[in-house]
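Changelog excerpt

This revision adds worked examples to the README so contributors can see how folded entries look when concatenated. The first example is reproduced verbatim below.
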Amino acid sequence: MILPVYLYGHPVLRKETKDVPPDYPNLNKLIEDMFETMYNAEGVGLAAPQIGLEDRILVLDLSALAKDDPAFAGFKKTLINAHIIERDGEEKSVEEGCLSIPNVHEKVPRKNRIRIQYLDENLQPHDEVYEGYKARVIQHEYDHLDGILFVDRISGIRKQMIRSALNKIMTGNVKCSYKVKALRKKISP
């Protein structure tokens, strides 16, 4: 089932998520719905807060980018109760966008390498290291689990420059090709 993506301004996007218990009801259906919602919006990642849930779950699929980099072929993951243990390497600023902040793209600084521990969709534990774009996408989605949006990582001047766009998103005055849920309230300058 395709779910609405919560847009910038919704309080759920600012909440720190809770770990998922082993007996979480309908977990497989939720994961399936998250992937379907992400694919419908033509995204490569989606975190539970983006569909209104305060659960520590995110899904990723970089397969659509395999034509540009074969290393992305088959890179489809579900990360439950994820925790980044290390961030290191060179910090690079690369343009990012977000399904919850449509039509806004900004250069975001992030470390090039991470080590992350998580459970997969079968609740099996993993401890893995990622570099480059894979690390960037995971960090972007992981931030959602801690109530952080990519616009929080840009300079104050850049954020002021996009304030009008953020207000439009918050009030639902934005065109999206996917279902969304807007707050419909202005923020102060």
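The second example, added in the same revision:
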Amino acid sequence: MAAPVVTTTRSPRPDWLKVRLPSGDNYFRLKSTMRSLNLHTVCEEARCPNVAECWGQGTATFMILGDVCTRSCGFCAVKTGLPQILDREEPERVAKAVEALGLSHAVITSVNRDELPDGGAAIFAETIEAVRRRNPETNIEVLIPDFKGSRASLEAVLAAKPQILNHNIETVPRLYKHVRPGANFAQSVELLERAKTLSPDIISKTGLMVGLGESLDEVEDVMRELVVKARVDVFTIGQYLQPTREHLPIDRYVHPDEFDALAQKGREIGFRHVEAGPLVRSSYHAANQVP
């Protein structure tokens, strides 16, 4: 399969990437709840294009461990800087928000906290446990960092028994130095593989962006490795969108037909579920991915 055409100049955003502005009672109710409990969402911090749709449906992804990341990835709009003091009351506030919003599926992610010995794993575990105490029927999905490859940190999160464990690959190995400085492709695959070994019944999940200069052959190679080696169940794939001019440029806009073809290929390779489309992000339609 031929590599995609490289776009050398910034082209206008195509019609299939147009999104609606946030509005509606659910959107403002969720926003009010987050602010009243002093909580962050990746939807806002990472400038997710689906915030209007997801918040309008009463769903959001909680971002714990503060809103400042110790890494500086080329694609991400989350603030980078010095770490903040750990907020030990944050887990209980997340649990209160899940209860107030009546969520049947809660997604919890975080910034990277590389300065912490466990990378923030203990707070992840405390948040899972707090949400479950107040909301025993809620499915809990965590989108975790790589914890710099720490087995103990991964074990701490798994011990709290989330239903879904997600860790995003983000891009193909060749582009890692530009897209995910500070991360390592093999280490991320190993984390996913280890999660399935330690907790065989957990639903494992990962995601990839396209439009950064990868070839379709490279994407398919990554999908095969994720299924064959890491036994990943759920795969998400969406279009990279440049948050600001300081971030990595868009190489090209991938047509919806190509996303359909990638979804079909992913199912053929062996993923249990593939969510693919221009606006797909890690938590998009997450509740529908639980059997």
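Reviewer comment on example two: The two ends are 33 Å apart (CA to CA). The domain at 23-289 is CATH 3.20.20.70 (TIM Barrel).
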